[in-house]
Amino acid sequence: MTTEPRKTGAGIEDLVEMTTEIDPELVAICNDLGSQTDEAKAIYMTSRNIARKLVGDETVEDRVKQRCVTSTGDPAVADIMRFVNDPVKAGVEAIKRGAPILVDINMVKAGITKMGHKCEIICVLDKDEDAELARKYGITRTAAGFLKCRDMLEGSIVAIGNAPSAAFAVCRMIESGIRPAIIVGTPVGFVNAAESKEAVRSMDVPSITCVGTRGGTPMAVACVNELVAIANESKCKCKCATE
């Protein structure tokens, strides 16, 4: 027996409705590269303005915190974020030179904006597709993926939003002499998440992390996307200064 798809009497024009009022001023000043329509820009800027009031707006670190607050809907995450060894400057410089962005899971890869930079975004899971290395050594696929990418790690942008084991693997490679440009580490969960982020902070490498069990993909993505936004603003200023 076949079933016919249900048809509605409404045309697409009848179903199109904006979810928020459009403020032209907010649309005009929106700097979010992922917001392509007026509705998306208005939503982003309204959320961002709320976050500015909650977090403050004095430093570039505040800007990263604002984005994490808007991405999680949780103002408290601003208080658990940690910035070590001037990571915003390091991250912006890495983005400007097109450093590869190595991420632990495809959700992080999907969330990072593809606009405003020439960085290749690589999910390390794709480097050990058959889990050969993971099975051989009995480690997680994300840890194995970063080990597979060890020759790409020098000078790269590392973004880990899910897997504590991946963060530990990166730390071991740093101890062996490899140096990424920056680590964005926000693994989430009750097993090793807090400890892995503490390990990242102990490395002599620029890092953005959070304290405790909270974190996750939205925070990792927010951090990288804000670094891209800041990199594009500084590019514009440099260009305008020479004109």
TrEMBL record:
What pathway is this protein said to act in by its record?
Answer: Cofactor biosynthesis; adenosylcobalamin biosynthesis
Q: Residue ranges of the Cobalamin biosynthesis precorrin-8X methylmutase CobH/CbiC domain?
A: 43-229
Q: Which GO terms describe its biological process?
A: cobalamin biosynthetic process
Positions in coiled-coil regions: none
- What's in the keyword line of the UniProt record? Cobalamin biosynthesis, Isomerase
Sequence intervals crossing the membrane: none
Annotated Gene Ontology MF terms?
precorrin-8X methylmutase activity
Superkingdom, natural source: Archaea
What are the top taxonomic ranks of the organism? Answer: Archaea, Methanobacteriati, Methanobacteriota, Stenosarchaea group, Methanomicrobia
The protein here is known as Precorrin-8X methylmutase
Q: Which family does it belong to?
A: Belongs to the CobH/CbiC family.
Origin organism of this chain?
Methanolobus chelungpuianus
